Structure formats: C-alpha cells, structure tokens
Amino acid sequence: MSLVRTFYDPFTEFDKLFDDAFNARFHPSPTIEGKTTLTHRRDQAFPRMDLHENSETKTVTATFELPGIKQQDVNVEIHGNRLTISGESKCSDNYNKDSYVVQERSYGKFSRTLQIPQGIKAEDVHAKMENGVLTVSFPKVGPDQQPQRITIG
What is 37-67 written as a DSSP string? Predict the structure, then answer.
C-alpha cells in the first residue's frame, strides 16, 4: 500500500489567486491583533508533510516543514492511535504592526494529526528537528498487530 499522493495541476496557483482575492472580499480571514493566522487552506494543510514507508525496517517517517519555528515551540504527542504535531509560530517584535506594507507570513497556533497503528507506544516514536524540518519515525504496525503463524493441527 502506498501513502504517496502526488499530482501536478498547472492551474492550481492561478485558481488560488482568484479564490484568495474574491474570498478575502466577502469572507475576511480571522486575525489576531491584526496578524494573519495559520489556517487550513482549501487545498493544503499546515504544516506541510511527506510520509515515507521503509518496507525493510517496517517503519514510517513523517517529515514536516516548519520554517522559522523553534524546536521549543513544537509539541509531538501520542494519544491512542493519533500522532499530533502542534505548536506556535510567533511574530517578530522587531517591527511595528502599522509599518507593514505587505505581510504574507502567517503567525499563530497550528496542529496536524495523523492516524498511526494501534498499540504504538511513545517510546517507539522518535522525533528530531533540524533546520526547520521535523522528522518523526514510528513502526508501521504495532506489536499486537504483527502477523503470527498458526499451526494446522
């Protein structure tokens, strides 16, 4: 089973341009203290992620893009069969909010949840963060889901 979903649509950026322009006029996005917040767009979630399966080691690796976010502002949690990556991107205090001419970067809280195999324990999950890329690895199947041979009597 492959978890990869890739496709190319040359009109996606063009559609987003029009959607953003018209939706902003009729449905302004929520802001906190005048700052744009991290939201789910119609066609993408934040943080962006790649999933890789390794059939030899029977592991899955999720790689998340978190540019400009510090390691201490990111949380990795397991609850049941859900792995949640959450955190907060903080706005720089170096600039006065009234001095922006264009502000495209988003700030605020974010969260992304993945379903993982039942029975995965926190000690089976390994996470590291380097240069704004969070890598989380976990077993492809839980210990109670390993195939077991049944002898025919």
Answer: B----SS--SS-EEEEEETTTTEEEEEEE-T
pLDDT tens digit sequence for 109-146: 889 999 888 888 889 899 999 999 999 999 987 666 66
Which amino acid does the sequence have at 100?
Y
Peptide bond into 30 cis (omega under 30): no
Residue 126: which H helix or E strand, with range?
A: strand 126-130
Please return the burial class of 44, using the count of CB atoms within 10 Å of its CB with bins 0-12, 13-18 and 19+: exposed
Beta carbons of 123 and 140 less than 8 angstroms apart? no
Whole-model pTM above 0.90? Answer: no
**Residues 6 or more apart from 78 whose CB is under 8 A from it?**
84, 116, 120, 121, 122, 125
- Rounded CA-CA distance 126/90 in Å is 25
Sequence-separated (6 or more) residues with CB below 8 Å from residue 24: none
- Can you tell me whether residue 20 is helix, strand or coil? helix
